[in-house]
Amino acid sequence: MYNALPFPPRCPMPRRSTLVEFRRLGVLAVPIVIAQLSHMGMGVADAVMAGRLSATDLAGVTLGGNFYWPTMLLLSGIVMAVTPSVSQLNGAGRAEQAGAVVRQALWIAVCGGVLLMLLLRNAEPAYLLFGVDERAIPVAVGYLKAASPALVPLLAYGALRYLAEGMSWTVPAMVIGLTALPLKILFNWLFMYGWPALGIPALGGVGCGWATTVVMTYSLVVMTVVVANSRLSASNVFKAFSWPQLQEIRRLLVVGVPIGLALLVEVGLFATVGLLVGRLGVETVASHQIAFNVAGIAFMIPLALGMASTIRVGFNVGARDLPAARLSAWVATATTLSWGFAMGAVMLAFRHPIVALYTDDPEVVRLAAALLALGALFQVFDATQATVMGALRGYKSTGVPMLIAVVAYWLVGLPIGAGLCFGLGGVPPLEAALTSVFGAFDPLGVRGLWWGLVVGLALAAVALVGWMMRVSRVRD
Fold first, then answer.
1. CA distance 273 to 276
2. Alpha carbons 32 and 34: distance in angstroms, whole number
3. pLDDT band with cut points at 50, 70 and 90 for residue 443
4. pLDDT of residue 207 exceeding 70
């Protein structure tokens, strides 16, 4: 019912100007930016508040998140197939059919969320396998047990959010994000430090997980009310009940599974790097997390532009205005490139004052500032690949981008990073090649892992741009 629409050989509709398209993208992207920054702010709140307790609490919350978020994103990416499906229906004037899409996505959210919750509640052996600092494991395991009940409401909220965004309405997620962030900070404080009068014990870093569960439940309730009592009710999502329909779920999975896997392999790369950093001690973990938080904040703009380009490209494809779809994709890409260069320069120039906002530990400050210099370098590549991925989702082209991500991140970036971090013993040709270029080679520690991120992201960005050139050309 909501397969990609047929592509005509040539679209008769006139091309829109670049400036008009930039404005349309901006109208969609600005609320997404605020929503994503609010969501990112919850992670920053976890890092800052846990860091103020101890380096062990910060490391535990970080290591818990290294399992929680990548696995959650696999399912979230599948649910994200709602956006291009709904946006194409909206562009084709068939918005009333969007409710059927969302109801099947909600089944995916409920069933997948329950299974993932059971998996994450038994993650301790994985930490032992990776050999992370034993001081952080109890906090990481406790965090996962506390945050895992949030998975079902989080994924269900995502399905309703992507309905709104597919209908070109990005304000609800922004408003919910702005209200959820202060609630997250409040409940972090309440659970971390306790309130004996209410019978709430002091849970330390584990309290961040309980706060996540409370806030995600709140977000789902509010989004449900919005969908049922706004113009989104025209989608008919709550006007009927649907049992799981395998054919419709399969159509979502065809688009969504590659999205989820692409998100998983990218975020899984960062999570694996985080787990490997866990072998280097809590101070190094803390430094890595601070630098990663800063880079993640800067990443919100390209991520929002990618999500906005999914909406715009999908809408134009549904309306069969294919030249406009291509214009949307390339305007978003040019904008994100400019942002990447600007933020890279800011991170490089102000890395020491930025890190000082997180901690006053001199060793953590020194190492985190060095990592931010590398973060400034990969900022351009990370921004580009994220936005281009979003544009390709609007075309429902998700399979090849997933393969590009697997090769760039796991077959190139991670091996290079691990080799530079821990040394190349047992690989004499590589060690000899590096020695011939750089002289005697010594392991670079955590900086080597970040160099691997730079290489992987650069390769992914170049390959994805090349694929989008082909996709947008053959459909025009």
1. 5
2. 5
3. low
4. yes
